[in-house]
Write a structure and sequence with these properties.
Glucose Permease (Domain IIA); 10-stranded antiparallel sheet; alpha+beta; elongated; single chain
């Protein structure tokens, strides 16, 4: 018998071997849920969650925003800070940190004042003025504190003659001391109270002021409005900032229609621009 070379695999001469059945793996490995959560969260998110839970969310947000890593900064909240755990549960930051909410109490006789004078801001000049005058005499208030505490006595302020020494418009002589600030105003222009107070004078001023109104703002501070064509207030009347107290004119020692405005501190005139 001759031998033959067969290309390809050699065929088995015996019966086919029995295939082993595949083992069915029924055991399911427990998934690490925390690991999955950590994978989904970026490092920046993890830092933000930690900051919220530890009560430094605002500072961390500002720091991240300053470095360009965050686009938004959380504002402080008045309610308890809530943090979301990695398992999706929401809980108070106090519970996360193990702290407790402190109790705030006050005596039954405690006085709580919510008046405007007690809450003074840059947007509340009247409250600021009241606060200054209640804390000290007007004479001890520095210009840096008094500037801007009074409102304009006219809707538009244009200086005609400043406070201090000048050439007298009546005599032409030098060395005339001007006791106030002259503002341009056509006769009949509304004149407003520069701040809240009580009218202590409304009448004719025999020393050149003509028709004159004086408002006492308390603690040594007064304002006067002079050369008026008429006035609409009376002595003892309380006025508020911005109220119309008179109409401008040219009465008394005046060369034309204008408003002569004075600020007096403990009876002495000072530059009105230090208060306007």
């Amino acid at each position: 018998m001759t031998s033959q070379n067969v290309r390809g695999r050699r065929r088995a001469s015996g019966p086919a071997a029995e295939l082993r059945p595949a083992r069915v793996v029924s055991e399911i490995r427990p998934r690490d849920t925390e690991r999955q959560v950590r994978r989904r969260k970026s490092p920046l998110r993890q830092v933000a969650d930690f900051a919220a839970a530890s009560g430094v969310g605002q500072k961390a947000g500002v720091a991240l925003a300053a470095t360009g890593l965050a686009l938004t900064v959380g504002l402080p909240a008045t309610s308890p800070v809530m943090a979301t755990s990695e398992l999706g549960q929401t809980e108070s930051a106090l519970a996360v940190t193990g702290g407790s909410q402190p109790e705030v109490s006050a005596a039954a006789s405690a006085k709580i004042d919510f008046s405007r004078a007690a809450v003074a801001t840059a947007a509340d000049p009247d409250g600021k003025l009241k606060q200054l005058l209640s804390a000290q005499s007007a004479g001890s208030i520095q210009r840096a504190s008094s500037a801007g505490t009074m409102a304009s006595p006219l809707d538009t302020l244009t200086t005609a003659s400043p406070f201090g020494y000048r050439v007298s418009p009546l005599t032409g002589g030098a060395g005339d001391f001007h006791r106030g600030q002259d503002f341009v105003a056509q006769c009949g222009t509304a004149v407003h109270a520069a701040a809240s107070g009580k009218v202590t004078f409304a009448g004719w001023h025999e020393y050149g002021g003509g028709n004159r109104v004086v408002v006492d703002h308390g603690n040594g501070l007064e304002t006067t409005y002079n050369h008026l064509s008429s006035f609409t207030v009376k002595v003892g009347q309380t006025v508020s900032r911005g109220d119309t107290v008179a109409l401008s004119g040219t009465t008394g020692a005046s060369t034309g229609c204008h408003l002569h405005f004075e600020v007096q501190v403990n009876g002495e005139v000072v530059d009105p621009m230090g208060w306007l």
